[in-house]
Amino acid sequence: MTTVHEMHEVQKAPTRVPRYLAPATLTEALEIMAEYGSRARPVAGGTDLTVELDRGIHTGVDALVDLSRLGELALVELDGESVRLGAMVTHNQVVASETCRSRILPLAQACLEIGSPQLRNRATVAGNIVTASPANDTISALLALGAVVEISSTDGVRQVPVGEFFTGFRSTVLAPHELVTAIDVPALAANHRGVFVKAGLRRAQAISVVHLAMVIGFEDDGNTVTDATLALGSVAATVITVPDFEQVLTGQPLASGTIAAAAAAAVEAATPIDDLRATADYRSTVIATMVQRGLAAIAEGREATQWPVDTPLLDTRSAAVAPDGPDDGATSGIDFTASDEISCVTNGAAISASGAVGVTLLDWLRDEAGLTGVKEGCAEGECGACTVMLGGQAIMSCLTPAARAHGSTVVTVEGLAAGKGATDTGGNGRLSPIQDAFIQNGGVQCGFCTPGFLVSCAALLDEHPDPTLDQIKQGLAGNLCRCTGYKTIEAAVRQAAESVGTTQKNAQENQS
Questions:
Q1: Same domain for 58 and 121?
Q2: Contact 451, 413 (CB under 8 A)
Q3: Which end of the chain is least crowded, N or C, by CB within 10 Å?
Q4: 414, 433, 451 — which closes off a domain?
Q5: Within 10 Å of residue 275's Cβ, how many Cβ atoms?
Q6: How far is CA 349 from the centre of its chain?
Q7: β-strand partners of 93
Q8: Taking the CA of residue 506 as centre, how many other CA atoms within 13 Å lie in the half-sphere pointing to its CB?
Q9: Rounded CA gap, 252 and 223, in Å?
Q10: Last residue of a domain, one of 384, 414, 444
Q11: Which domain holds residue 384?
Q12: Would you write out the chain's pLDDT as a tens digit for each of its 512 residues?
């Protein structure tokens, strides 16, 4: 008898897409999708798609259609009583937006819980819903807030409530030739409060064990509930709402007994499974705890108290550019095949090299540009060893199509030494303050993670010249050290900050 062995997904041959298209306008993008249909894959952040292609999950793909250069889709706008998010709005844009934090808080909280700063600089809210995993954090927030998805094609535009967008596990109503172009999120009314709550297995880079969002409306007395919505994720094939939750709460104050009954209704509605992250029993137990804590926070007006102060984004662009998303000067309106070259400014020097399609920016930098300081640790955006600066933002180069760098600027660890504040350290050459501080504090052990840490640290210090310990931990949450050297790295960041501050102070005194 012949035994058939099925390969694990990491053993499968990767899908190398032969063509890369970066349309200059939305109209052009829709025409491309109409032409290619199911043979094209649109790329927003690419943080999910790149991994899936590398694992051979998608076949028959002839073109990647990169939408991340379309500034017209990268705006956060308050439109009446609704916050409109263009399809290229990233999670970090939502986190940085005062409009989002004040008007659609549960979504901002969900975006902050996704991945790491590097991932959030690329990953988009629209991409999170198109991927359609029940573990995707923003879906519960969008459901609780009553968001509407705008879908466009050459046939026109249609509006779909987010609750009707999902047809099953990782499936949606989106046709092959259509694109999500915006998400309209109703702003919380004055008498409504909402919160997002997540349970994960670690502080960052954690896929949800359970996530939920709730929005509660109150009478003028601020106590009696008029309406309530609860959305639960990672407890069923899709993110679900709980009608009995509203029935239990409506007309009642948020007292302990009512809160307990609402938590029981949530547990009853869920149908969790056992998987690597948790058992079904654990998920049911934690649902009750999360619902009770969320309702207690809303009852006491504490729903926003855990928001961190001045969250690091690892985005060094000017304030005039950053709110508008991915406009980093990169060229659009391009059509690349394997014979084309990527041209960009890397570490201050203009370079051109082949290999424009079918590979990640990480592979292109190492194999074509010869910049081997960039490391591959996990190839799925988990470890941060491949962190580089693209157009002023820290990103995971293992999740970014190589051609995205065309016409833009890239900084790798090799480009830090001659950067701002570099000092002559004798035999060590000219090192930046953070590199010098790593040496003095023993921030290097095996060294494999070090290039990614250094780039992230440099971006953090550029953005926050005098970071708090909390900001250091938040800014470096996307970088993992298997040697567990975090304390010395944190000390190195503090020393580098003090060194730069002293240098600037001395320069100012000399000028005066």
A1: no
A2: yes
A3: N
A4: 414
A5: 13
A6: 29
A7: none
A8: 7
A9: 8
A10: 414
A11: 9-69+326-414
A12: 556 666 665 556 678 899 999 999 999 999 999 999 999 999 999 888 888 888 888 888 999 999 999 999 999 999 899 999 999 999 999 999 999 999 999 999 999 999 999 999 999 999 999 999 999 999 999 999 999 999 999 999 999 999 999 999 999 999 999 999 999 999 999 999 999 999 999 888 889 999 999 999 999 988 999 999 999 999 999 999 999 999 999 999 999 999 999 999 999 999 998 988 999 999 999 999 999 999 999 999 999 999 999 999 999 986 544 444 445 556 678 999 988 999 999 999 999 999 889 899 999 999 999 999 999 999 999 999 999 999 999 999 999 999 999 999 999 999 998 654 444 444 445 899 999 999 999 999 899 999 999 999 999 999 999 999 999 999 999 999 989 779 999 999 999 999 876 665 555 556 65
Give the closest residue to 83 by CA, choosing from 173, 186, 222, 163. Answer: 186
**The pair of three-digit structure tokens given for residue 59, joined into one six-digit string:** 């076949």
Could you tell me the two tokens for 284? 């049911």
Structure tokens at 309: 């102060």
Both tokens of residue 381?
């955006």
Residue 225 is which amino acid?
Answer: V
Kindly list the strands in the beta sheet with 342-346, ordered across the sheet, starting from the edge strand earlier in the chain: 349-353, 342-346, 409-411, 387-390, 393-396
What is the residue-wise DSSP string for 32-76?
HHHHHGGGEEEESS-TTHHHHHHTT---S--EEEE-TT-GGGS-E
Q: CA 195, CA 156: separation in Å to the nearest integer?
A: 35
Helix (H) or strand (E) holding 179: strand 179-186
Residues constituting the chain: 512
Whether 433 and 487 map to the same domain: the answer is yes
Q: Based on the domain organization, do 364 and 472 belong to the same domain?
A: no
Q: How far is CA 211 from the centre of its chain?
A: 16
Alpha-carbon distance of 282 to 279, in angstroms, equals 5
Provide the number of structural domains found in the chain.
3
Torsion, Cα 99 104 107 109, to 10 degrees, reads 80
Say if strands 192-199 and 179-186 run parallel, antiparallel, or are unpaired. unpaired
- CATH code of the domain covering residue 489: 1.10.150.120
What are the structure tokens assigned to 316, written together? 């060094």
Per-residue tokens: 418: 């001659």
Is 202 exposed, middle or buried (CB count within 10 Å of its CB: 0-12, 13-18, 19+)?
exposed
312 in a domain, yes or no? no
Token pair recorded at residue 349: 């020097």
Q: State phi, psi for 339 to the nearest 5 degrees.
A: -85, -5
- For the record, the structure tokens of 353 come out as 């090299």
Q: Do residues 378 and 481 share a domain?
A: no
How far apart are the C-alpha atoms of 37 and 44, rounded to whole Å? 17
Both structure tokens of 257:
């007994």
